[in-house]
Write a structure and sequence with these properties.
The protein is of the alpha/beta class. It has one domain: Class I glutamine amidotransferase (GATase) domain (Rossmann fold). The protein has five helices and eleven strands. A nine-stranded mixed sheet has the order 2-1-3-4-11-10-9-6-7, sandwiched between helices. The longest helix is centred in the first third of the chain and has 10 residues. It is globular, with a radius of gyration of 15 Å. The chain starts with a strand and ends with a helix. The model has no long low-confidence stretch (mean pLDDT 94).
């Protein structure tokens, strides 16, 4: 059976079609979900894509967090459903308190758009199942506010519970503990700043993102 991935579209999202195409390339089926819907339909997984939800007014992800569909996303996550937030989607998951911490302006207040080498720190998430700790992936970033910050207590919890999913080999944005992606305690909710959908085809320079997307489909 083909895994159906719902991709939530907020006003200002701009990576939803990229995710749909990349999911299809690895054997899944993508379906767009509008942010004003109050249900997810019959999807098997959910992705909050990159972009500038609601223009990133107030704070990145702050307005999107109150979209009607986020209640359905939270319920889906509580039931163990796979939920992934990519870039702006990660910011929304943090604002919705589905993941701890927050995303702030990059070190030096510079917008960054470049490939990065990531290290897999945990194979116990819906993105990294099938991979091994220590594996390295080449996946691009594209953000201005990707500097992950959290309290010392939260960092200790992330480390103790294996919730740090991906780290940067060469930290580009000042993120705490080089963090590029984290998950919740159950591993079914993942947020990451790099864009795996932009590294899922040879013409894009890397297919390492496909390894993560196959994990989302349960094919890792």
């Amino acid at each position: 059976m083909t895994t159906k991935v719902g991709v939530v579209v907020f006003p200002g999202s701009n990576c939803e079609q990229d995710v749909i195409e990349a999911v299809g390339a690895v054997g899944g089926s993508g379906q767009l979900l509008w942010h004003k819907d109050d249900h997810l339909g019959d999807v098997d997984a959910v992705v909050l894509p990159g972009g500038f939800a609601h223009g990133d007014y107030l704070r990145v992800g702050a307005m999107a967090r109150f979209s009607p569909i986020m209640d359905a996303v939270a319920d889906f996550a509580r039931q163990g459903g796979p939920v992934v937030g990519i870039c702006n989607g990660f910011q929304i998951l943090a604002e919705a308190q589905l993941l701890p911490g927050a995303l702030y302006k990059n070190r030096g207040s510079r917008f960054l758009c470049q490939p990065e080498i990531l290290r897999v720190e945990s194979a116990n998430s819906v993105l990294t199942r099938g991979l091994s700790v220590g594996d390295e992936l080449r996946i691009p970033i594209n953000h201005f506010e990707g500097n992950y910050l959290c309290s010392e207590n939260n960092l200790a919890t992330l480390r103790d519970n294996g919730q740090i999913v991906l780290t940067y080999r060469d930290n580009p944005n000042g993120a705490t503990a080089d963090i590029a992606g984290i998950c919740n305690g159950s591993g079914n909710v993942v947020g990451l700043m790099p864009h795996p959908e932009r590294a899922a085809h040879p013409l894009l320079g890397s297919t390492d993102g496909a390894l993560l997307l196959r994990g989302l489909l349960g094919d890792g």
